[in-house]
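Response to reviewer comment R2.3. The reviewers asked that we include at least one raw input/output pair. We reproduce the pair for Pyruvate, phosphate dikinase here without editing.
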Amino acid sequence: MSENKDPHVAESSVGGAKFVYDFTEGNRDLKDLLGGKGANLAEMTNLGLPVPPGFTITTEACKTYLDSGEEPTALRDEVSAHLEALEAKMGKKLGQADDPLLVSVRSGAKFSMPGMMDTVLNIGLSDKSVLGLSKQSGDDRFAWDSYRRLIQMFGKTVLGVDGELFEEALDAAKDLKKVTVDTDLEAADLKKLVTKFKKIVKTEAGRDFPQDPREQMDLAIKAVFDSWNGDRAKLYRRQERIPHDLGTAVNICSMVFGNLGPDSGTGVAFTRDPASGHQGVYGDYLQNAQGEDVVAGIRNTVPLAELESIDKKSYDQLMGIMETLENHYKDLCDIEFTIERGQLWMLQTRVGKRTAGAAFRIATQLVDQGLIDEAEALQRVTGAQLAQLMFPRFDEKAKVEQVGRGIAASPGAAVGKAVFDSYTAVKWSRSGEKVILVRRETNPDDLDGMIAAEGILTSRGGKTSHAAVVARGMGKTCVCGAEELEVDTKRRRMTVPGGHVVEEGDLISIDGSSGKVYLGEVPVVPSPVVEYFEGRMHAGADDADELVEAVHRIMAFADRKRSLRVRANADNAEDALRARRFGAQGIGLCRTEHMFLGDRRELVERLILADTEEEREESLRALLPLQKKDFVELFSAMDGLPVTVRLLDPPLHEFLPDITELSVRVALAESRQEPHENDLRLLQAVHRLHEQNPMLGLRGVRLGLVIPGLFTMQVRAIAEAAAERKSAKGDPRAEIMIPLVGTVQELEFVREEADQVIAEVEAATGTELKLSIGTMIELPRAAVTAGQIAEAAEFFSFGTNDLTQTVWGFSRDDVEASFFTAYLEKGIFGVSPFETIDKDGVGALVAAAAKAGRETRPDIKLGVCGEHGGDPESVHFFHEVGLDYVSCSPFRIPVARLEAGRAASSSKGSDHR
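Raw output as returned:
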């Protein structure tokens, strides 16, 4: 921590707690305490950059307030001490009548939550101090513009007044003046608007707008604290998986003004393009404006490069500061700044949100520049971003009708029905419709609709507008600032050049990579990243684009770093070959029940209906060569790599016709006196096999124990297929997995039969087969008794889908449709336990079973084959508990490879959300 402490500020001694830090006291490593904004303001202050003086109220103060409903006892005195120090530094007092000190009160959580919490600017203005500001600045219009902004923001944010009422009054003032932008309103107009705004506050809030500047500040601080638990903030945290118990810091910063005339302004800058990752001058600037005008997108900005011709001195200084910050943070920086009459001030910096493509490009660029190493490069990208890059894109050869073009704010190819408000977007999405949310500009209240939509289209704003920033963070396709599109939200339609009207419900397509907007549905083609993984595009080739090259390099970093191997869940040779192209190091789950569908269902029916041992043996003999052929193809596709074959798992009734359909068929046949003996036998079998809860009934190892010959037929097919591949000079590495084992005795019984069959095949073929036998750990009892089960198992594969069901007592197919939505909305779940592993419950069993298995059998192989094997967060957990491999669907293999590398190279302190 910096020793450059303000002499006017005394440290709190109440219980040793300190709730307020001057900007000179903090640094960027104190994000947990000061929030991202406060920590970075302190860091910029330490770097000697032009930051307006101020102080930060810690997240601990917020958490105390939220827990108890009251601010910490010491907080008011600490704030008073820091305010006095700020006043001494600035030579003026908060809200004094002649030359008022004004401050902003801004939220600032550890993780960036753009627009989700509250900010109030111009605190300290009142009926008296606005006159002093007018006199001191020499600009009557500026003073009254600042005052109306305060009342508007304070009324909405602190007093809960409907923001639309202020907007309507502002629009009415512009209509009366016959102007379209607020900068055309004169001082007299704004003075009348202030009077109108105060009346709105009195009517809607039941109280006068506070004239005491300290009351304004205290109420604003509480409002920022409260906004942590606002609906939109909670929704955003759930979407971004940000913990709910962090709280927000509050930053009190002396105001600098961008709305003092044409030599003033405000802007947002990026050290690299957050959409593409390319180096250059990127950002937006708006003359004679305050910061919220840029972010809200209510006035269209000019590109940052134009600042050079507007104010060369400030532009050059800003470019130097941007270079300093990027080299200091060793990453893309997102910067907010204000120019006050030719004086540049830095209001915020943070590691900037970026698109998936930009993340990969920037990571490799920074490695090439020597700013970061390979391990850190892996922390700058995520599996979720890689998955985004694998989504399809629009077919450039398709016939299209382009109707507009805006700013390419967040890439992707989105097609959907146009909707013009958040409520409709959510409603239609829940009905299965794909929608594009179309707005003049978005605001934080649109978050529900933005999440529900396939993409977002606005007619105003730029790359730094609310829509752009939030869309990039969520990986949503977004086109902003399509000015030629006239969006009428009240009439629910959009007029495009040429007069064509897009009504709500009409299909449109938006390209977040080019900014183009099309009528109708544009067909899509595979992503070049998928083509690279499929082997149809080669990194380093002349026609390979730079994104593919960046992905190739990052994947090479990950493969060098990772200790977890990555296998595929694949049931046939075609899927296996694709998985191998995607980098699979074997098959971790071959579900043999999928091989019994289609034309083979009749053979399974005959097996189930068999009345005698001879009939059953006949059915098994018919299935054996078919199974063997399946395995020969599979072992050939994965030659030299392990293939884990799970013996038949699901309940047998799944291979029989639907009971209702079959009952109708039998009843109709009887009424018509038609032959129906076979259907009748089937119906009797269905009734015989019917179970109240089939997922906990006759399936898995239980089938092998009660239906003689079923598992031994499958083991023989595996062994004969392996022997055939060996005789053909292949290298089959088959592993036999027994499902749903709950006790070691079950495994021992099946294993004894399997070993006997394998020995018979070895003797008959003269081939030595090294087939390992293991089990799925998917029942709590199996996890608890894993030490015993390991005595008979050469490997464990954790079936985390069923383990999650049995640990939680959930029937997945039922609960996800019935109450999971409510659980997620209420915050009981941050994410579905079927999507990301429940570390405290299911994960604890996995960790304990892995430890117990290794204590019994040190060389036991441990893997996971549930859907969690391809989930980024879960992959990190499996690395931590020491598993040998994860297995997932072929499409998720690159994601799992990347996350395994990130898990192996992660270091404390890396935090690039």
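Residues 1-15, 907-913 have pLDDT under 50 and may be disordered. DSSP finds 36 helices and 31 strands in the chain. Further pairs are available on request from the corresponding author.
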